[in-house]
Amino acid sequence: MIRYQFFPRSQGITDNIKSVVECFQYEVERIKSSDFNLSSNEVLEIIRPRLEAVDFIVETGKSKLQKISVPVLFSYNNNIDKSFNADAVSKDGKIVLEVEAGRAVDNNQFLKDIFQACMMFEVEYLIIAARNNYRGGDDFYKIYSFLETLYISNRLKLPLKGILLIGY
């Protein structure tokens, strides 16, 4: 089962973001964490063709040329001085997708994903995909609870228009 929630909850999702949800929904029988113990790279590989069909650029491997580099800082003559990698980025550069598996909550990878997306040039939305079932726990719900607290408390203002959490 694919679950998803957009934050802030006072807004709905855009068509571009909905198309990413549909990529996961289409492949749910091949990626659902209740049945499979796939790595994040394996999940990304399965949904890659669907993401590419909806105009996303997707990481193809771990070498420098296969990764998706998103600018963060610029130096003289507009050269990129610092960048962060993303699993996938919309062709317009406004939506970043990070697919997580075991490290999503245990190693707080989702927090790093949020921080990096906030630093990326022209990124407006972050999509985090996390397992519904990991070692008997529910990573989707754990991240959901964190994001709910973040947005309801209103104590920290993120430069993003929103974050979509997808549970697979």
UniProtKB/TrEMBL annotation:
Recorded superkingdom: Bacteria
The protein, known as: Restriction endonuclease
UniProt organism field: Flavobacterium cyanobacteriorum
